[in-house]
Amino acid sequence: MQLFRASIAHFPKQTTQFSDDIAIFKDGGLLIDKKEIKDIGDFDTIAARYPAASVTDLTGKWILPGLIDSHLHYPQTQSIAHYGEQLLTWLENYTFPAEMQFADSEHANTIAKVFLNQLLKNGTTTGFVFTTVHKSSCQALFNAASDIDMAIVAGKVCMDRNCPSQLTDCAESAQADSASLIETWHNKGRNRYALTPRFAPTSTEAQLAALGELAQQYSDVFIQTHLSENLDEIAWVKSLFPQADGYLDVYDKYNLVRERAVFGHGIHLTPDEWGRLGESGATVAFCPTSNLFLGSGLFDMTAARANKVHVAMATDVGAGTTFNMFKTYGDAYKVSQLRNDPLSPLEGFYLMTQGAAIAHGLDEEIGNLNPGTIADFIVVEPRFDELTSLRIQQDADFDDVFFALSILGDDRAIAQTWISGNCCYEKSSGNNELQ
């Protein structure tokens, strides 16, 4: 057994009382046995309880649960940081050309490893990931994640209209390929499958119906798509689905609005849509860096809370501008400031750890450091350069540390990333890449 000594912070349970319910151990001990967390508490207490444990002293650093990114696109790893478009032209000019390259399985294998390396160096241990229309792109990601026993939720993108012919499938092939991938990968190791219609405009009603059938047949699979990101997109959906009562209703008609459904963005929702999301148990992925970058709008966290909608933080790479979840919260804070309802550091931390895990029904495995969960955790070095050493005091409270890193931090703040009890990334080791 291995005992880590550091400052520790996590949320042990579901809460809306963030300052009351966060567990903080300034001189903490985290005990792991192989891939499982066995105990947590004050270091002296844990050390006395397990005198034979091997001690790793990380004093001055923080141990946190591995971070959860609830919406991003691995084929867009190369698309990040392209200039100057809004959603629909971004797809045409950058996204679709990048995704066409994934017809080459070797390219998919290469980018999958680069993508996972970026997650690891930024402290993300679980991602909800869009692949491409190519079945092999999904297999490449699951294979790479399986090599390090990483928890990944992913799915083959389904599109049968309004996209380049090279990226077009059909209702029948989308259903057959998705079913095959579910049988091969869902709940195999730590892999989980998500039915993935890109968004309503690129799927016919026949395709949405076919995926809805799978959602009923495989009731524990995830669903992921996009919702109400952009005003032009919403108008387009209305023209394509004139009988629907709104954007969300397009998905709802085909049994795609339920628990384990994750909707990216949700910026321009009607009161009825907010209410339906709340009663369904679905999750909205808040993607602030992407929303600002594409000029899509400002997410309404106040409405989400009022309607008891699950919200999880997400980068939305490649329209998102960083793989770093701390910096993603930094932009979420700015969005909430513009809405005159600032998102506190502790709530932001919750939305990328325990809050996300609860939203996805995975909190018995990830999102916290409770005994019995999988040993996915990160070691954070807050004072990693001259400025952060000046700004962040050695004995600073966790909320101040987290907030400062959301503004000043980057991957240099991540000293180590542990997955399933193995150190899969270490900043100082020099060679941290999956081969």
Automatic annotation (TrEMBL):
Superkingdom, taxonomy of origin: Bacteria
Class of the enzyme per the UniProt entry, highest EC level: hydrolase
Pathway(s): Purine metabolism; guanine degradation; xanthine from guanine: step 1/1
GO MF terms, alphabetically ordered: guanine deaminase activity; zinc ion binding
Keyword set includes Zinc: yes
Family from the record: Belongs to the metallo-dependent hydrolases superfamily. ATZ/TRZ family.
NCBIfam families, A to Z: guan_deamin, PRK09228.1
Name of this protein: Guanine deaminase
Organism, scientific name: Alteromonas mediterranea
